[in-house]
Amino acid sequence: MSADFRLKEELPELTDRIVASYHDLGVGHHLGHCPLPNTHEVCEIARDLRAVLFPGYRSRRNLHMGNIGFHVGALIDGLHDRLTEQIARALRHDFMRRAKQADPDSELCTKAPYGGLPDFEADGQRVTLAFLNQIPALRELLVEDVKAAYEGDPAAASYDEVIFCYPGLSAVTAHRIAHALHTLGVPLIPRMIAEWSHAETGIDIHPGARIGPGFFIDHGTGVVIGATCRIAENVKIYQGVTLGAKSFPRDGEGRLVRSAKRHPTVERDVVIYSNATVLGGDVTLGAGVVIGAGATITKNVSAGTKVTAEKPSLRFRAAG
């Protein structure tokens, strides 16, 4: 039997086994008539929002006060339509998901058109307009973040360098966008933006984290900030810092309690140096606290306290 003949027999059989796994496993596929938000489009929307928040740095040059209105107007017009579509998809998917959880035999996702269901497009447009109206306020927050980075890093030569080059500011910009959408109740899309930013910068900030103005992440690689973190104004953190959870509480049936506060509260003017770890929803770092590099914190730290890890003992051994 030739190799080509065997392939003609084996590949259809392999296909049948793969398709059977979709039926048997249940989880791990999204098949039906409820389209998810498009990953590429959401990332492009995030890039265009960044261009509105900080015009003239990346996607379009030669902008000035004489033409910026036309440029931003075109971006906002396109963002309105594209974001409305993606948010409508996210809202529809979330509605269908909840319906399926409540009734596993529900066939809502197979019905088209979606008669008798909420008007997801209208809801998407309403949320989009509410979000776009926040852009001036987001710019005010981000300008404070830019100033904090410039004032907090002697290596920064200018505000332009911070905006153009600093991964910490890129991550915070994405977070401000994602958090605004998260606060408006948009499913999926905030997390998609957060993970796009995570891939670009190496900084992982959950959209649920609440972060005050003047936030500066220096260097940034490996920073993790959990969903229920509360960070006040003028906080500075370095690479490798984790603001995480001690453990995950469970209910009487052993299921995760998803609404519990699991991550720390950080009050104003705190500095956390590289590779420090702060764990627990019951942990508060008071105003002006300084956490030294490599320290692990699992209990409250009073305002004004400086915490350092014990100096490790080094052993040197001669070659040979």
Defining traits:
alpha/beta; 8 helices; 14 strands; globular; serine acetyltransferase, domain 1; single chain; 320 residues; five-stranded parallel sheet; UDP N-Acetylglucosamine Acyltransferase, domain 1
Write the layout of secondary structure elements.
Elements: H1 3-25, H2 39-53, H3 68-102, H4 120-132, H5 135-152, H6 159-165, H7 167-183, H8 189-201, E1 204-205, E2 210-211, E3 216-218, E4 224-225, E5 230-231, E6 236-238, E7 242-244, E8 265-266, E9 271-272, E10 277-279, E11 284-285, E12 290-291, E13 296-297, E14 306-307
Parallel strand pairs: 1-4, 2-5, 3-6, 4-7, 5-8, 6-9, 7-10, 8-11, 9-12, 10-13, 12-14
Can you give a write-up of this model?
By secondary structure, the chain is an alpha/beta fold. It has two domains: 31-203, serine acetyltransferase, domain 1, CATH 1.10.3130; 222-310, UDP N-Acetylglucosamine Acyltransferase, domain 1. The chain is 44% helix and 10% strand. The chain has helices at residues 3-25, 39-53, 68-102, 120-132, 135-152, 159-165, 167-183, 189-201; strands at 204-205, 210-211, 216-218, 224-225, 230-231, 236-238, 242-244, 265-266, 271-272, 277-279, 284-285, 290-291, 296-297, 306-307. The strands form three sheets. The protein has a five-stranded parallel sheet. α2 packs across α8 (189-201), α5 (135-152) packs antiparallel against α7 and α7 (167-183) packs antiparallel against α8 (189-201). The radius of gyration is 24 Å and the shape is globular.
